[in-house]
Amino acid sequence: MVFILGIFLSRLLGRLAAKAIRKVYVDKAVEATGAKGALEKIGFKSEISSVFGLLITWSLYAVFLVAAADILGLTQITLFLSDIVLYIPNVIIAVVMLILGMVISSFVQMLVKETTLAASLASADLLSQVARWSIVIFTIMAALIQLGVATELIQILFAGLIFMLALAGGIAFGLGGKDKAKEIIDQIFRK
Prior knowledge:
8 helices, 0% strand, single chain, mainly alpha, 191 residues
């Protein structure tokens, strides 16, 4: 009885949540940034509000299933389902992080491209792609850490990536700017 009532209540609350998210124009905001096209390229064709509605519905299904198993005295099933219910918020947060990361990466790509074109720089496409993919990679790593997937490995990879970029930047500026640095040092000692 509890589970059957929970199914109807879960569906109702999921639909209400999807409507509420639609009312605050989340779907239109995602579309306006151009992230909807990026999400469709990776196979994500649903509206954001519908996805959140489904996540809430299925989360509540699990909660009511735990309650029903507890009422029936099924201890092992209750413990197993409790672990799943406690993990669901991590999944929701990871999904939100991924969606926000895609939206922000598309916005930053557009911003960097327009800014570099306005400054008449030749590498507008390259810089905008580097900015976009940096955010996407960082977002994916953060989402995997939120899910608890190979946390230590991801942290090591992230630290290695930062070290690699710092070393590459230092070498590039060091070798590329050695003549300019020599000029500046000579000017300092002349004074």
